[in-house]
């Protein structure tokens, strides 16, 4: 427990506005060890690559027990802080969220992503509803004794095409960030947002360290640092690129 507590504290300290920690998302012990060798300061799973690696679709389709067992194997194989993608907490009820968080911490997590989209639905939870869910996660963290990092994610920008992103959507995100912070979140994740001016606006208005995902339309890390980003993750991109390479190599070997 003491090692996990220290890892959690170290993970919190990595979130610095203007000097973002890079999380090159992993999906199993082997990929985790490769990223460690590359010089990573911390590790993060992504729900999409973990699910895909086990033959499931994203969206809490992989059984929680299997995802937890996989994460437990990852944390047992490395010494770096590791954060787990918990998607929507595997259920809408705050009590379910709390249970999922407790299990993730027991599996070795020092942090987790927790999103506000209705998994399996078409939209986002109302702010008041999501606040109760974030608060349940925060209470579970406190009760565990491990200061796990709650990365509260909004799916506002994933629900709209990049060309539809606007200051109005950023204002909605800012309101959610403020509410989630009051409920106990430690970071704010805005996947899909890529416009430099909008990212800067979000980072300036939100007290929490902001996490941006490095998608094709997103500025490079150095630019994100200048905009005030504190965390850059890569989501499903590493797994998808690996699979393309694997298929190409297999095709060449089979056809050759």
UniProtKB/TrEMBL annotation:
Protein's UniProt name: Phosphonomutase
Pfam families: PEP_mutase (PF13714)
Domain of life the protein comes from: Bacteria
PANTHER family per UniProt: CARBOXYPHOSPHONOENOLPYRUVATE PHOSPHONOMUTASE-LIKE PROTEIN (AFU_ORTHOLOGUE AFUA_5G07230), PHOSPHOENOLPYRUVATE CARBOXYLASE
InterPro entries: ICL/PEPM, Pyrv/PenolPyrv_kinase-like_dom, Pyrv_kinase-like_dom_sf
Single GO molecular function: catalytic activity
């Amino acid at each position: 427990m003491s090692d996990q507590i220290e890892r959690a504290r170290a993970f919190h300290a990595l979130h610095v506005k203007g000097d973002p920690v890079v999380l090159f998302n992993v999906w199993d012990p082997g990929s985790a060890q490769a990223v460690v060798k590359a010089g990573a300061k911390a590790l993060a799973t992504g729900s999409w690559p973990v699910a895909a690696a086990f033959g499931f679709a994203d969206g809490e389709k992989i059984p929680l027990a299997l995802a937890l067992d996989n994460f437990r194997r990852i944390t047992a194989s490395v010494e770096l802080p590791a954060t787990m993608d918990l998607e929507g907490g595997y259920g809408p009820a705050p009590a379910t969220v709390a249970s999922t968080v407790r299990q993730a911490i027991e599996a070795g997590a020092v942090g987790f992503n927790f999103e506000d989209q209705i998994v399996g639905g078409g939209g986002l939870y109302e702010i008041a509803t999501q606040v109760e869910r974030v608060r349940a996660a925060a209470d579970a963290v406190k009760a565990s004794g491990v200061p796990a990092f709650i990365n509260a994610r909004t799916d506002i920008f994933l629900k709209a095409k990049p060309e539809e992103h606007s200051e109005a959507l950023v204002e909605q995100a800012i309101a959610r960030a403020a509410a989630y912070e009051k409920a106990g979140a430690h970071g704010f994740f805005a996947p899909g947002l890529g416009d430099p001016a909008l990212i800067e606006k979000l980072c300036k208005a939100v007290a929490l360290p902001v996490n941006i995902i490095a998608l094709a339309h997103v500025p490079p890390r150095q630019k994100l640092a200048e905009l005030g980003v504190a965390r850059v993750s890569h989501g499903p991109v590493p797994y998808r690129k690996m699979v393309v390479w694997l298929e190409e190599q297999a095709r060449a070997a089979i056809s050759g």
